[in-house]
Design brief:
- The structure holds two protein chains of two kinds.
- By secondary structure, chain A is mostly helical.
- Chain A is 83% helix and 0% strand.
- In chain A, helix 1 (2-37) packs antiparallel against helix 3 and helix 2 packs across helix 3 (63-93).
- Chain A is elongated, with a radius of gyration of 18 Å.
- Chain B is mainly alpha-helical.
- Chain B is built from ten helices and two strands.
- A two-stranded antiparallel ribbon of chain B has the order 1-2.
- In chain B, strand 1 (135-141) and strand 2 form a beta hairpin.
- Chain B is globular.
- Chain B starts with a helix and ends with a helix.
- Classes of the chains: A mainly alpha, B mainly alpha.
- Chains A and B meet through helix 1, helix 3 and helix 4 of A and helix 3, helix 4, helix 8 and helix 9 of B.
């Protein structure tokens, strides 16, 4: 039981560590680039999800800003992945009670998100 | 953005991260007024920045607290169900109760909890209550005393009800529920304060994540402001973890009580 718990926690830790490192790296690079590039007034406006992908595929002066958005986006996704990782880890341990609980949390989170976005 | 603004943002983030990981709360209670008063940010932008700082604090803190065995993962996940359901219902029923009554109720509850925390400080949970033979058993090594603490969770139903209420208030008032969940885990379920704070800190990021997407999609996230504050929060989370390794539980209790009183007064003045 103790070993199973450690395995689950290791999974969750990995997801969190990747999320934190990736998001903080993107944000740091973005802040450095923004300091160097000094974007024109109005460059930092109206964030939209597709802006991130457009700017990354068509690099412009706004790429630095888009990197920051990417970092923020990764950060926001990290807790969702954390719950999903817990679910997978509990599943692999055969702890069905906590598979159900983690699944319920994930369903509620996604449901809340969809409800508020509509 | 001026260097002063950048330093103020980093400083606000560090403060949020430090207090968040130390006490298991989100930090929005003071970061939002800080951003509005010192940086003249619009309220929605301040809340969006604060939510991102909370996610950063929770994620970075959880990595370190999981390594220290302070997070009770199964307890956190169990309480998260009640919190998320409460938050959804709170969001839906936000307009049913007058704001003044809600603020008054919130303040009174916080002051009662502060009193209970102080009472418990002078009448600690007996060692017999930290029974290793109950539900959701966990153990960790207290780095201050060097002792191994073994505990189990009592009255999970009652603490789930408080978590539901915390989620509900989060949806109704736009505040994090850590100020309710940490005392509930500690006072009702017998979870040691450091483990309760770590478990609450772990949960808060999940609760905040759904709201973050809403603010993001509505254009309230300024990437420079959010990145600066978030990087500060990540540094603060590391500092908070280091502090919790050396600070005695008694001092953390007093800090928490001080924060509860501050939050109650702030809510009364709204």
């Amino acid at each position: 039981m103790a070993n199973q718990l450690q395995r689950t926690e290791r999974w969750v830790r990995r997801i969190l560590r990747v999320g934190v490192w990736l998001s903080s790296s993107l944000m740091t690079i973005s802040l450095i680039l923004l300091t160097i590039l000094e974007p024109q007034q109005g460059a930092i406006v109206s964030p939209a999800l597709d802006e991130i992908f457009n700017a990354l595929t068509h690099p412009t002066a706004r790429t630095a800003v888009s990197l920051a958005y990417s970092g923020i986006f990764v950060l926001m996704l990290t807790p969702f992945f954390r719950v999903a990782a817990s679910l997978v880890a509990f599943w692999s341990e055969g702890d069905w009670r906590y598979v159900g609980i983690s699944g319920l949390v994930l369903i509620f989170l996604i449901g809340q998100l969809l409800y508020l976005l509509m | 953005m001026s260097l002063t603004s950048f330093l103020l943002l980093i400083g606000g983030g560090i403060l949020t991260g430090t207090i968040g990981t130390l006490l298991g709360i989100g930090g929005g209670l003071f970061l939002v007024p800080y951003l509005v008063l010192f940086l003249n940010l619009p309220m929605h932008q301040a809340i969006a920045t604060s939510i991102l700082a909370v996610i950063a604090t929770s994620s970075a803190g959880a990595v370190m607290n999981l390594e220290r065995n302070l997070v009770n993962l199964r307890l956190g996940m169990s309480l998260e169900v009640a919190t998320v359901v409460g938050a959804v219902l709170g969001g839906i029923s936000a307009n049913l109760l007058p704001g003044e009554i809600l603020s008054l109720l919130f303040s009174v509850v916080l002051l009662v909890i502060a009193g209970m925390m102080l009472y418990r400080r002078y009448r600690p949970i007996p060692a017999s209550a930290l029974s290793p033979d109950g539900n959701l058993q966990a153990r960790y090594r207290d780095e201050v005393s060097g002792e191994e603490v073994i505990y189990s969770v009592r009255n999970l139903g009652a603490t789930s009800a408080i978590s539901f209420l915390a989620g509900n208030l989060s949806g109704l008032l736009g505040i994090g529920g850590g100020v309710f969940k940490v005392p509930a885990m500690h006072l009702i379920s017998g979870v040691p304060l450091k483990a309760a704070a770590a478990t609450s800190n772990f949960m808060i990021g999940v609760t905040a994540a759904a709201s973050a997407f809403i603010y993001f999609s509505h254009g309230h996230v300024n990437p420079v402001i959010a990145s600066s504050t978030t990087l500060g929060a990540l540094a603060g989370a590391t500092l908070g973890i280091r502090l919790s390794r050396v600070l005695k539980t008694e001092l953390i209790t007093y800090l928490f009580v001080g924060l509860l009183i501050l939050a109650a007064v702030q809510m009364l003045l709204r």
